[in-house]
């Protein structure tokens, strides 16, 4: 099978500054010492290589028809002529948002500015003027984070801007759990920062046969009302399309309450400080019975936030007496080591989707997001195949992949294109060089 698949991998480490490994610049240079295909247990199960189990990207995601109809009905009844501009403005704002500056960082910047002003002999300032100059400089150079208050009107704009893209990202995360663990049949789910309820709809699309309870938690009463209307087809009356959905503004207090799946999608970035995020992540993990799914924008800010949450769970010394099982990274990382991309590029993924067909919203789109799925149990339960973390660069006979590998490093791979079916976000079913003795395979260019 290894000969048939013929997946060849360069041994060079990826050099972030160059984008490709130096020895892989020549597209036809497939070097000896290739990586071996992981075919120990017949993982293809008679399927063609283009359908190997590491392929996880979904085709274009489409909202359930009942949800799309409800969203359209609500917008037709409430949207004004400026809705398109409001949607574009909110989308740009959410995508460009940074994390709040922590008080310690503000103090460090203030001390630096004060020292800089004092070193200038041309500035003779009183203490009051110095303080004013420092504050003025801080205001000009510091990102002004503001908490969004989702009123009825803003909730509707958010629905028009983010319902379909958020649904696509969460569907991709849930699909990975189902594809890699088909025996998992959750009965309960909790969604923190549930907003429009897209997580509930995505979970129902994946596990609707087994899920019996959906707990939606959001501080905004207007968002909860909107989510409930969407469940009822856009109206305030009638039977909900999905049974067993409950809404509340605060997290369940009892430490005994756990859910099979706990989700926070695009919500941790709405918290005002690192301390608040730490408290929420710890609470969500305590309430996790099997999987904790965290999703944020595919930006450096979103990726950094998720890595903090990942490390908090993995390194957390607090062990719940009710559930002492440790945590491990189910996806996307093939390891529990420090993220090798954290200082360079955001580890993000892309999912294509069909948007809600508004007048300004007709063409297929791509949702760029970052995710971390943490699970209770042992890391041996997860595949440790390398993950493709950037778009695949295609050439006539080869493709270039950037891989996050189980040894905690990035590698640049040159793969033969003839039977290659993997894309951005997929797992590549190969064993990296650190997993086996040096190969004596012959350079294919010599055969």
Structure description:
The chain is 32% helix and 17% strand. It is of the alpha/beta class and 447 residues long. It has three domains: 61-95 and 146-376, Vaccinia Virus protein VP39 (Rossmann fold, 3-Layer(aba) Sandwich), CATH 3.40.50; 101-141; 385-433. Helix 3 (83-95) packs across helix 6, helix 4 packs across helix 5 (127-141) and helix 6 (152-180) packs parallel to helix 7.
- Give the distance, in angstroms, between the N- and C-terminal Cα atoms: 18 Å
User: Shape, please?
Assistant: globular
How confident overall, as mean pLDDT? 80
The helix content, as a percent range, equals 25-40%
The domain tally reads: 3
Count of DSSP E strands? 15
Secondary-structure element string: HEEHHHHHEHEHEEHEHEEEEEEEE
- What low-confidence regions span 5 or more consecutive residues with pLDDT below 50? 1-35, 435-447
Secondary-structure content class: alpha/beta
Annotated CATH homologous superfamily of the largest domain: Vaccinia Virus protein VP39
Attribute tags:
single chain, 447 residues, alpha/beta, Rossmann fold, 3 domains, nine-stranded mixed β-sheet, 10 helices, 15 strands, 32% helix, globular, disordered N terminus, disordered C terminus, signal, 4 iron, 4 sulfur cluster binding, transit peptide
What's this, in brief?
Helices cover 32% and strands 17% of the residues.
């Amino acid at each position: 099978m290894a000969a048939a698949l013929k997946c060849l991998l360069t041994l060079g480490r990826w050099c972030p500054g160059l984008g490709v490994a130096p020895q892989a610049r020549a597209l036809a240079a497939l070097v000896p010492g290739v990586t071996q295909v992981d075919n120990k247990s017949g993982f293809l199960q008679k399927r063609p290589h283009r359908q190997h189990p590491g392929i996880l990207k979904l085709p274009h995601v489409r909202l359930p028809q009942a949800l799309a109809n409800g969203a359209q009905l609500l917008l037709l009844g409430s949207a004004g002529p400026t809705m398109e501009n409001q949607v574009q403005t909110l989308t740009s704002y959410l995508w460009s948002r940074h994390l709040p500056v922590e008080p310690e960082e503000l103090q460090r910047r203030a001390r630096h500015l004060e020292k800089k002003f004092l070193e200038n002999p041309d500035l003779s300032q009183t203490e009051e003027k110095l303080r004013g100059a420092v504050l003025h400089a801080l205001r000009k150079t510091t990102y002004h984070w503001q908490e969004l208050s989702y009123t009825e009107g803003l909730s509707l704009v958010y629905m028009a801007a983010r319902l379909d893209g958020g649904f696509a990202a969460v569907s991709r995360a849930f699909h990975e759990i189902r594809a890699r663990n088909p025996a998992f049949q959750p009965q309960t789910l909790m969604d923190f920062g549930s907003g429009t309820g897209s997580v509930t709809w995505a979970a129902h699309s994946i596990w609707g046969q087994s899920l019996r309870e959906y707990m939606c938690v959001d501080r905004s009463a207007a968002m909860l009302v909107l989510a409930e209307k969407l469940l009822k087809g856009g109206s305030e009356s009638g039977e909900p399309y999905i049974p067993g959905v409950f809404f509340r503004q605060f997290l369940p207090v009892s430490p005994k309450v756990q859910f099979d799946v706990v989700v926070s999608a695009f919500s941790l970035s709405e918290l005002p400080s690192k301390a608040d995020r730490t408290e929420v992540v710890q609470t969500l993990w305590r309430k996790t019975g099997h999987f904790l799914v965290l999703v944020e924008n595919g930006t450096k800010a979103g990726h950094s936030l998720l890595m903090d949450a990942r490390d908090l769970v993995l390194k957390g010394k607090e062990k719940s007496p009710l559930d002492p099982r440790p945590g491990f990274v189910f996806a996307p990382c093939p390891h529990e080591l420090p993220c090798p991309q954290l200082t360079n590029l955001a580890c993000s993924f892309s999912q294509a989707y069909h948007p809600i067909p508004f007048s300004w919203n007709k063409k297929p789109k791509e949702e760029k997001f970052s995710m971390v799925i943490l699970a209770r149990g042992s890391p041996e339960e997860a595949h440790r195949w390398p993950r493709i973390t950037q778009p695949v660069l295609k050439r006539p006979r080869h493709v270039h992949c950037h891989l996050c590998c189980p040894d905690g490093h990035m590698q640049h791979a040159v793969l033969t294109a003839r039977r290659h079916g993997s894309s951005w976000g997929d797992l590549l079913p190969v064993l990296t060089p650190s997993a086996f003795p040096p190969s004596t395979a012959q350079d294919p260019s010599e055969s």
